Amino acid sequence: MDLEGITLFGKLGNISEEGLCFLGEDDLLSDEIESQVLGSIVWSKGTKRLFFEGTIMWAQTSKIKNVIYHIAGIQFLEKINLTDSMLARSLEIK
């Protein structure tokens, strides 16, 4: 994900047609609420990539499986069509 020239790498928490949950290891997004971001979701083997533009709507810190993550909710500027694998991933997380 790119925020004002800074590239952030993280994990996909969950995803819907309207947005996603970004899990990162750095607390760079907590002061960036309402900032615009460009990003891409890369499949684990790097065979596919989905680009998006969005707005950071919220940020918080949370412990998941004994690991502290800095989490941010990103709302897409335009709805996306979820692929079958992305939909399965979304349902798996809930």
The H-and-E topology, N to C, reads as EEEEEEEH
Number of helical segments?
1
Number of strands: 7
Radius of gyration: 13 Å
User: How far is the first residue's CA from the last residue's CA?
Assistant: 23 Å
Domain unit count: 1
What is the CATH fold-level name? Thrombin, subunit H
CATH class: Mainly Beta
Main sheet specs:
5 strands, antiparallel
What's the layout of helices and strands?
Elements: E1 2-3, E2 6-7, E3 11-15, E4 19-24, E5 36-42, E6 49-64, E7 67-76, H1 84-93
Antiparallel strand pairs: 1-2, 3-4, 4-7, 5-6, 6-7
Could you please describe the fold and organization of this structure?
The chain has one domain: Thrombin, subunit H (Beta Barrel), CATH 2.40.10. With 94 residues, it is mainly beta. Strand 3 (11-15) and strand 4 (19-24) form a beta hairpin. 11% of the residues lie in helices and 51% in strands. The chain is globular. The model has no long low-confidence stretch (mean pLDDT 86). The protein starts with a strand and ends with a helix. It has one helix at 84-93, and strands at residues 2-3, 6-7, 11-15, 19-24, 36-42, 49-64, 67-76. The protein is built from one helix and seven strands; from the N terminus they run E-E-E-E-E-E-E-H. Strands 3-4-7-6-5 form a five-stranded antiparallel β-sheet. The chain has a two-stranded antiparallel sheet with strand order 1-2.
